[in-house]
Amino acid sequence: MSASVVVSGLSHAFPGHPVLFEDLSFELRPGRITGLCGPSGCGKSTLLSILAGWVEPTGGQVRATGVERTGWVFQNPHGVPGRTALDHVVLPLLARGTARAEAEERARAVMADFRLTEVADRPFRQLSGGEAQRLMLSRAVSSAPDLLLVDEPTAQLDPRTAETVNATLGGIAGAGAIVVIATHDPHTRAACTDVIDLHSAALGVVRGEAL
Q1: Do 50 and 57 form a contact (C-beta atoms < 8 A)?
Q2: How far apart are CA 177 and CA 167, in angstroms?
Q3: Which stretches of the chain score pLDDT less than 70?
Q4: End-to-end distance of the chain based on CA atoms, in angstroms?
Q5: Distance, CA of 173 to CA of 156 (rounded, Å)
Q6: Exposure winner among 52, 56, 88, 116, fewest CB in 10 A?
């Protein structure tokens, strides 16, 4: 069964605060990258949390079908200081029963896509902020999620590396995953097939297929 996420009439507001968004409806499908765009504080990360099932919306519903694995990449990367970068990417493969040798081979291939080959054997504490961010993306990708949620993936990256990350995320979607990215980066926005502008008075997809 093909994975899909259908959002209907979604609204949310935290107690004592204005409504972040309301009556938001859209469908997420494999092979497409949906960008959640708008300035800080408009509800991008909150919407990601709702899609992940971590936050209960104040109105509307989210119906996920065929989504068995959800990957999440936070804006601020966190890792185990003494473990190597490779260890972080190998872990989800080992957790799924992959043999160590095969897991390392597959992990190194994923890391190469994110230009991390040279730091594979370095401990996490020696990575730069940008390297750590790309490492978290690599780890999420190695788990082969049906739904990949990414919060500001290029915030700490230089333009060239950001372009590589955007292209790689496009490849992940092309391989059959649903990819949702919260971003205020215009280049990442341009790389998305669909855009939900949470700052717009008319919420909805402003590029791509209509809601």
Answers
A1: yes
A2: 14
A3: 1, 200-211
A4: 22
A5: 22
A6: 56
Query: Do the strands 147-151 and 70-73 form a parallel or antiparallel pair, or are they unpaired?
Result: parallel
Residue 33's beta-bridge partner residues? Answer: 179
CB 5 within 8 A of CB 150: no
106 Rama class: left (phi>0) / alpha (psi -120 to 50) / beta = alpha
Q: Decide: 70 and 146 in contact? Cβ < 8 Å.
A: yes
Q: Rounded to the nearest 5 degrees, what angle is found at the Cα of 31, between the Cα atoms of 27 and 36?
A: 50
Q: Give the full edge-to-edge strand order of the sheet including 4-12.
A: 21-28, 4-12, 59-65
Output the pLDDT for position 64: 94
Residue 34, pLDDT score: 94
Q: Which among 151, 164, 196, 202 has a CA at the least distance from the CA of 32?
A: 196
φ, ψ (nearest 5 deg) of residue 53: 85, 15
Q: What is the rounded CA–CA span in Å between residue 176 and residue 146?
A: 8
Q: Where does 60-158 have alpha helices with state H?
A: 85-95, 100-113, 129-142
* Whole-model pTM over 0.70: yes
